[in-house]
């Protein structure tokens, strides 16, 4: 309870993204379990629920990763469909929000809006949709477009993809609004540039009115980062903006202020959109131990095979004959070399290679050591008290409304944070000590959407 006259501390929002997508995940090691078994998802969801997190986010994988025409073991070898997993988790969790990543290129508005509304009913108002837009022909080969995303309504360029995604969200909301709050269905009709649908939606208005919409500035399948277009999309259509790691407090503050200022143009208030950077962490009983743990995690993230794969992405060449424990190749990168299927190309290979060479020469590093040194650092490293303080400082400074944690291990990668950091945030008075609402919108402090019948 806040003392009379005391200033209310800014409250932090916390969410977690399940390991299994992206470079943060450690695929093999003594702490790594199944990435596809339901017990792993249930364990993580239960930990997030116990830790009073806002939501659990699952990524979407529409095709197995390949390298040189073969499926490789540097990423998830199979990933269950998110809405299916979350529907099962709805039955074994209490209050935690359930967020599914779903692509706007390879889905249809009616089909996806129906499934999201169903999850919102099954979970009593805890559903969320992480909106992403894919464009690569590699993924498209799995769908009716046969390697031509434009045949699936895909995009010839980034701006067109964002326009389609924005209309997709608008169409889904029109479908959700076709039922009155009193439970009366009405015919709907949407005729736009990308979609023309009409009929009667067959799922009643859900407990939240609309599932929460999350937009990422660094979505899988999207090129670029926290760009102008991504920020504008979030300001116009999202409830949560999943930003990239803040880097520095100043960079976080600049992004936060820029996104928030855009809201007024759409008749929205600053509190109507939560800015939550995706972050990683490494803990220890001392700062030195935390640094050791962080270094060990980075070592496990980059296997010898993974180091060669990363090297080939930068060099644009077949370097499979090189020793990962040997020096960097003396040949220059091929600027026109192809990226691995489904991977975003590196814009300036020569510049990246020059930076890697400088690091390797200065520190006498091998290929693998260079990749470990140059690709990734945990966002927060330290004791539980130190990490709690770092996170609190960023929120207090206006660099974020909270964070989406990306644990390195499945299924127990969140356990230590929930048990040791969350209580310290609660002691600081910046994080809830109990859920005060039942729906995800209530967790996030978001209003119910105004019905537009």
TrEMBL record:
SUPFAM superfamilies given in the database record: Bacterial luciferase-like (SSF51679)
Similarity remark: Belongs to the NtaA/SnaA/DszA monooxygenase family.
Organism: Streptomyces nondiastaticus
PANTHER family: ALKANESULFONATE MONOOXYGENASE-RELATED (PTHR30011), C2H2 FINGER DOMAIN TRANSCRIPTION FACTOR (EUROFUNG)-RELATED (PTHR30011:SF16)
Protein name (database record): NtaA/DmoA family FMN-dependent monooxygenase
Region (Disordered) residue spans: 206-229, 318-342
InterPro entries, per database record: Diverse_substr_monoxygenases, Luciferase-like_dom, Luciferase-like_sf, NTA_MOA
Domain of life: Bacteria
Annotated GO MF terms: monooxygenase activity
Stretches assigned to the Luciferase-like domain: 31-399
EC assignment: 1.14.-.-
Short name of one Pfam family: Bac_luciferase
Sorted UniProt keywords: Flavoprotein, FMN, Monooxygenase, Oxidoreductase
Coiled-coil annotated spans: none
Enzyme class: oxidoreductase
């Amino acid at each position: 309870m806040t003392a009379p006259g005391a200033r209310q501390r800014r409250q932090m929002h916390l969410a977690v993204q399940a390991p299994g997508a992206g470079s943060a995940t450690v695929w093999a090691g003594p702490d790594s379990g199944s990435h596809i078994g339901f017990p792993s998802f249930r364990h993580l969801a239960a930990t997030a629920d116990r830790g009073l997190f806002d939501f659990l986010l699952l990524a979407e994988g529409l095709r197995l990763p390949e390298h040189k025409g073969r499926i490789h073991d540097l990423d998830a070898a199979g990933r269950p469909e998110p809405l299916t997993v979350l529907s099962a988790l709805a039955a074994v969790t209490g209050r935690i929000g359930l967020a599914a990543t779903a692509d706007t290129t390879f889905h249809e508005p009616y089909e996806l809006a129906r499934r999201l509304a169903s999850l919102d009913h099954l979970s009593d108002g805890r559903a969320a949709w992480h909106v992403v837009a894919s464009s690569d022909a590699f993924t498209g080969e799995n769908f009716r477009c046969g390697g031509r995303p434009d045949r699936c309504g895909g995009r010839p360029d980034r701006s067109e993809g964002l326009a389609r995604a924005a209309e997709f969200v608008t169409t889904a909301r029109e479908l959700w609004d076709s039922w009155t709050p009193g439970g009366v269905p009405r015919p709907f009709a949407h005729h736009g540039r990308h979609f023309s649908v009409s009929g009667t939606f067959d799922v009643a208005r859900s407990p939240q009115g609309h599932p929460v919409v999350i937009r990422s500035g660094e979505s899988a399948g999207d090129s670029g980062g926290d760009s102008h277009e991504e920020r504008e999309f979030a300001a116009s259509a999202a409830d949560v903006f999943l930003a990239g790691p803040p880097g520095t407090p100043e960079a976080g503050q600049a992004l936060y202020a820029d996104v928030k200022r855009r809201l007024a143009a759409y008749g929205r208030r600053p509190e109507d959109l939560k800015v939550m950077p995706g972050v990683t962490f490494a803990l220890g009983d001392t700062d030195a131990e935390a640094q050791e743990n962080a270094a060990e995690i980075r070592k496990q993230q980059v296997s010898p095979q993974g180091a060669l794969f990363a090297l080939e992405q930068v060099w644009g060449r077949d370097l499979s004959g090189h020793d990962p424990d040997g020096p960097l190749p003396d040949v220059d990168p091929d600027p026109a070399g192809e990226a691995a299927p489904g991977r975003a190309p590196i814009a300036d290979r020569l510049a990246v290679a020059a930076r890697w060479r400088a690091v390797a020469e200065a520190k006498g590093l091998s290929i693998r050591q260079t990749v470990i040194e140059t690709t990734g650092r945990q966002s927060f490293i330290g004791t539980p008290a130190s990490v709690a303080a770092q996170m609190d400082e960023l929120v207090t400074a206006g660099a974020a409304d909270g964070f989406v944690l990306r644990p390195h291990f499945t299924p127990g990668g969140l356990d230590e944070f929930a048990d040791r950091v969350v209580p310290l945030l609660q002691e600081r008075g910046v994080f809830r000590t109990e859920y005060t609402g039942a729906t995800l919108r209530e967790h996030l402090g978001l209003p119910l959407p105004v019905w537009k019948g």
